[in-house]
Design brief:
The protein is mainly α. Among the domains are: 119 residues, no CATH class; 65 residues. The chain contains 12 helices and no strands.
Amino acid sequence: MGFPWLPPSLIPRKSTKCNLGRTVSMLLAISGIFFVFILVIGATYLYWAPQWREAEALARRLAQTSTASAAQMEIPVVQQQVLSHIPWFDAALRRIPFVLRLDRLREQAGNQTPIGIWLLVGGMCAVLGFWLVSQIGRLPWWGALVCGSGGFSLPFLYLSHLKHDRLRRFHEQFPEALGMLIRSIQAGHSLIIGMQLVSEEFPDPLGPEFRRTVEHITKGGLPFDEAMKALSDRLDSLDLKYFVIATIIQRESGGNLTEVLEKLEGLIRQRFELQDRVKALSAEGKLSAIVLFALPFVIVLALMVLNPGYLSVLFETETGRWLIGVGLSMMIIGGFITKRMIAIRV
């Protein structure tokens, strides 16, 4: 309510205490959400920890008392993946195909945490992102919903990063492993013994994955074809798929496996050389893309430092916030298009 009859010096001004109180309330709410999240995780762990310890102790006793005949069973080695330590939640997750695909992503990333924990973390990130954007950014409900969906995807983007990093390290190890496997077969060892030797010499991810495959065949009694296909599923690599197909065909129809593996090794090394040349040629395009996408943020930061009130219209008005949202959306779409343009698959 205005006071037009009063001089400007006597018009009451808005106190900054309201803004300070709103900021303190917001910080307290964020702390409360974080505290509730920690409390739920801790209560869940305390409730299920005794059962987990009993199951682990039972598994250790069974492993210690296993005999040679029990080594032929599939149960000790080939176990069903646990989606959650809560039985009813695990049964519910197994009925959702999307969750099974996320669990495959987790396994390919080499992470041992059940996918139920990742879903819980994603849900907390979604709720926190929705609340923060709706309170701080003052965006419409659909904008906050989009930001909440983005928060839910953050843990799985991290898993995707782990998967690609693990796959990169596997590709670096695979040619050397093939060479060692070829020399082992030429020395008179079988393919299984050669894979066991490779598993003992190479670190993660190639060594443990080959060791797991050998144990599936020798101790778990899993057929060779199924064990090799499981290895191919755990590592989403085209080179590994070629290796698996070559070994399965050679085992069924015979042939010179050493010659096939030597050609596969040479092909992989040639492709690595070509990939290095492609990276060198596309480095300029990648640098240009980085500069183009970083330039708007650098300009905004410089203007906020030099003239803080110049961009106040964008952040304080409804039209300005809409323009920011549209601009960021167009930048994200342009980023995907640019990435597809400069990514050359060999």
